[in-house]
Every structure is written in C-alpha cells, then in structure tokens.
Amino acid sequence: MSLDDAIRLTEILLSVALIQQSLEHIFGLPNERPHYLIRLVLSLLLLAGVQSQWVSVALFINMLFILRRFQGPYNGGSDLLSMLLIMCVCAAHFAPNETWQEYIFGYLALQAIFSYFKSGWAKVIHRDWRTGRALVDVFSFSVYPISETTRSWASRPRLLCAMAWAVILLELLFPLTMLSQVTLIAGLALAMSFHMANFVMFGFNRFVWVWAATYPSLIWLQSRLDLLALG
C-alpha cells in the first residue's frame, strides 16, 4: 500500500468513525449539539475528499472545542484514538515533504500496535484475568443491555478462562503481526473479530471503526518494512 493510499483510506475510515460519534450526540444536550453537527458536516466532507487539508484543520479545532466541553476525552480509548487520528491526518497534510509524512504515519502505526500490547499487558498482570474471573464478572454483572443467553456464559468459567487467554495472547503478541504481510492480515482479522464480538455482545460500537481507521497505517508500515528488508 502506498503512503497516499494509506492516508486517504485512513481519512475514509476516520470519517465513518466520526460520523457515528456525531450521530450519537446531535440529539443530545443543547450545548453538545452544535459541536457534533459541525463534526458531522466536516466528517462528510472528509469522506468525500473535499478540501481534505483544510477540513482536517477544522476537525482539529472542533476537537479542541469538544475537549473543552467535556473537560477531556470523556469516552476513554475510542476518544483518545480519534484525537490521535485527527492530529496525524492533519499533520500529514501539512508535512513539508513525504519523509515527514512517513514519520507521522509510522508514529500512528506504532501507537496502534502499542495500544493492543498495552491492553494485553494490563490484563495479564492481574490474576482475575489470568483465571478468567474478570470475564465471569463482566458477563454476570455487566450494566450493558446484553441478552440473557450472553449473560448465561458466566456459568461457564472454563470457557471464559480460555476466552480471556485468547484475548491476552492476541494483544500481547500483536506486535509480531508486523513480521510479514500474511501475519499482519491474520492479526488484523483477529483483532477486528474481537472488536466486532464486543460490539455484538456489549454494544461497544465505537471501537470498531476507530481502530479500523488505524489499520491502513499498519499495512503501509509493514510494506515499508518489507522494502527496507529487501533493500
């Protein structure tokens, strides 16, 4: 994947993520609506590729107003990653040359890799995750509107222990997916399956598109590493 293709695909996926976030707020509190209506319009322009350079600047400014409104990234990881993506897309458009664009998108890719590894490390150091108890509690006491069938999984501790270790290993070993194009595609497919499972079972819809928006940078970086290895 070329760098230009990675930047454009990132813009498209980021736009979808921001549109989703905006639609959640445009019927919210009066002091939220203007910020997210503006974000919705800007995201549609970015999706269409209209003046992407200046639209990305406007999204950055809009992001600052939303941060002020909520006194920080109120929705945790998905908001933080949205901020990182907006800043990297904006910086890439104003980079003085292609080398700086590569640095910016390399940084974005490394942050995505680290986000998975850090999440896995945070789990493996806790005994409740290693024993599966953490997932038992999630399914037993989740405040999210999950089905009774899904909640009944809490009575299957061995299955949940296996699931916990599957998630831990996926996240801890994610950096190794950069070894080749095949391992990366497999790793991204597994990671996206994990995000989709969280969406289906718990309604964590924000994680799907915003993490997907980092994948073009990973695919580009892996191809760049392959070229360096051959070179």
Question: What would your notes on this structure say?
Answer:
With 231 residues, this protein is mostly helical. The chain has one domain (3-230). It has twelve helices and no strands. Helix 1 (3-25) runs antiparallel to helix 2 (33-48), helix 4 packs antiparallel against helix 5 (98-124) and helix 10 (181-202) packs antiparallel against helix 11. The longest helix is centred in the middle third of the chain and has 27 residues, at 98-124. The chain starts with a helix and ends with a helix.
Our count of helices gives: 12
What sequence of helices (H) and strands (E) makes up the elements?
A: HHHHHHHHHHHH
Number of strands: 0
- Based on Cα principal axes, name the global outline: flat
Strand content: under 5%
Produce a short descriptive summary.
This protein is mainly alpha-helical and 231 residues long. The protein has helices spanning 3-25, 33-48, 52-70, 77-94, 98-124, 127-131, 133-141, 148-151, 157-172, 181-202, 206-212, 215-230. It has 12 helices and no strands.
Please give a handful of descriptors for the protein shown.
single chain, mainly alpha, flat
Write the layout of secondary structure elements.
Blueprint: H1 3-25, H2 33-48, H3 52-70, H4 77-94, H5 98-124, H6 127-131, H7 133-141, H8 148-151, H9 157-172, H10 181-202, H11 206-212, H12 215-230
Helix pairs in contact: 1-2, 1-4, 1-11, 1-12, 2-3, 3-4, 4-5, 4-11, 5-9, 5-12, 7-9, 10-11, 10-12
